[in-house]
Design brief:
alpha+beta, five-stranded antiparallel β-sheet, four-stranded antiparallel β-sheet, 29% strand, rod-shaped
Amino acid sequence: MKNCQNGFTLIELVVVLGILATLSGTILFTANGLQRRSLENAMFTLQADLRHAQRMAVIEGRYWQVLLNTAENSYSVGPANDGDSHVIVYFPNGIELASGNSNIRYLPRGTVSGSTTLRLKTANFTQRMTINVGPGRAMIYPIERTN
C-alpha cells in the first residue's frame, strides 16, 4: 500500500506566513513613505507659491493674493482684483486642504495683514503651516501621524 500524504507540514506553513508578513510590512512601509513625501512636496509647493505672491506684490507694488478653496481642494495665486490672471493649483489625489483662511493677501510692501494656519492631510498624516502677521513668512511644522 502506498504512503500518501495530502496537505502541508507545519514548517511549510510557517515559512509561507513569514514571507507574506514580510511582504505586507514592506508594502505598508513603502506606501506610508510615499504618502509622507507627497504631503511634504505639496506643502513645499504651497510655500513656494506664497513666497512668489509676496515677491510679486513687492516687485509690482500692488496687492497679490492666494485664495484657498477647500471645496475644490485647490488654491489660486495672482494679483488682487484680477481673477482672470490667477493660476489655479490643485492638490494631488490623496492630499486634502483641511483648513485655512480663504484669502491670504500680500500688501505692496510684502507683508500680510493677518496670520493664518493652513493644514494639509492625507489618510495617515497631517502637516500644518502658519503664515505670520507682518512679515508674511510661511513656517512649516513637522508632519504628524493622525492614527
